[in-house]
Amino acid sequence: MSLRLLHPPSLGAPRLVEGPAPGGAGASGGAGASGGAGASGGAGASGPRSSDSQDDLADLYAHALPSPGRAARVRANLVTTLDGAAAGADGSSRSISGATDLRVLVLLRSLADVVLVGAGTARSEGYGPLRVRASLAARRAALGQAPAPALAVVTRSGRLPGNLLAAASGDRRGAAPRVLAVTCAAAGDPALDRLRSGLGDDAVVVAGDEHVDLVEAVDELAHRGLHRVLCEGGPALLRDVVAAGLLDELCLTTSPLLVAGDGPRALVGEALVERLELASLLLADDGGGTLLGRWTVRR
Ligand SMILES: NC(=O)c1ccc[n+]([C@@H]2O[C@H](COP(=O)([O-])OP(=O)(O)OC[C@H]3O[C@@H](n4cnc5c(N)ncnc54)[C@H](OP(=O)(O)O)[C@@H]3O)[C@@H](O)[C@H]2O)c1
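^ thats the input. predicted complex w/ NAP below
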């Protein structure tokens, strides 16, 4: 399956784009600078080009380090249908996703230091400790990243799925924790004790009293060397991440489906307004025309 770059139109070669220099370009610079180096196609021509190699895609989606003055670069990744649903009739995103979306999801995870996810999504989608395919591991090693991203689950209640706690404790090897809980004092001592005994003391981030303070939580993650944050939702968490001013970019897959029903939109909760601009747009040659947009927050 190939991916055709529809935007930006000025990038001429299959090896298309490099992310902003670490600590460099601002929020809108994500896909602005043409990588150029190593181009294997003809240079200079404008218009859509085809990109189906993993390296081209990884270059296009390079996860930059934070801009000066920010602790982390926070990218979100979600899939919705044409009618705006973030979950299908099965109550999960599985039924509205597809091979193209999955391919980008796997790639984006492989570029992140930590995947941040709401407990609701961790429960409904059965999250476990994350792994990275061997074919994507070399890029991480070259950037000095851990072999796989950590998973940080945001929960006010302190209620993590039992299977996630079990998998995480079976997975501890004395190295940096691979599963973290991001919670607040309101979770209460019994829940915090349960989390600490399951995940390890250093894997429980308590940020805020009554509510999780996401800015403090992301600072805490950054102090642990986790600067490239991939937020996979769900809709409640993503709304709060945006409201806290933490979102830098949104990778949004649009699946060519209509589903109606009462599934959530990509963001739910109190109204807000955030302005973004298109950084890149890929069209999948997958029979239906899945669209992969990357949008940066305007600051
Ligand atoms: N289309 C997609 O790409 C996509 C991605 C993710 C999820 N989804 C779908 O979205 C649905 C889940 O929606 P959801 O709104 O329940 O997801 P969610 O945001 O993952 O979960 C909400 C729960 O996460 C915790 N949480 C979220 N934000 C928090 C905050 N700021 N502070 C403290 N805790 C916070 C709370 O857990 P506690 O109850 O433990 O306190 C809250 O009850 C599912 O159908 C899922 O399949 C779709």
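The first helix runs from residue 54 to 60.
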